[in-house]
Amino acid sequence: MTRSILVATLTAGLLVLVACETAPLPEGELSRARAAIRDADADPNVAKYASTEIERARRLLADAEQASQQRRGHDATEHYAYLATQMARIAGQRSREQVALQRVAAGETERQHLIETLPTSGAAPAHESLPVAHLAETERGLVLTLEDGTFDKDRAVIKPAARRGLDALARFLNENPGRRVQIEAFTDAEGSSVYNLELSQDRADAVAMAVIDRGVTPARVRAIGWGEKYPTASNDDEGGRGKNRRVEITVSNGDAAVPVRVVNAP
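RE: above sequence
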């Protein structure tokens, strides 16, 4: 091998070695870490509820960047970058958990406020009370059942005894603008099913209009008449029929619509 060929060969080899030493480290894990931290920083709740975790993620990313710049090898860079990515994700998860807990706590406070605000049967003078048979927390929301005494027989005009109680319901809804309300009216099984369906719809509409007239946005209120469907008692005696003649007002658990009533459910 001539001297010139040997020199050329050695030079080419050295250039390859230099190129290998100066080539940048793969950006895959670093890019993922940067993106994960950007996503976490974009959520203001992360800084509020997971400041320790996101700060730790930033430090780990800084370690990864430093390892990459100092050419300490792929393993060190990827190790720190991977940890940074995972810590950023933990920060996001911690933040979401805390937000969910805050919503549950707020919802419980609102439900308790509604329970305390609404006068129930026997809790106030008759002329001031909303004739509520009971309040029940269900998966669909908080259900207020208005007794048969809300309307005269075969009528859909709300009695004065119920009007002031509806003030309390509307006030709660106006104070909690995210909540929705579904008003469902039912009758007993006497008379024709067509008449009972129409009467129940008229009664549901009457309660809905009373709530809307008190300042609640119409889009948040839905009225449904079920007629003699979904009885809660036997229609064989007056006591049972009286229980079936009712209006159920369901206040949503959150800002979503009240879930549909399941067929054959009580």
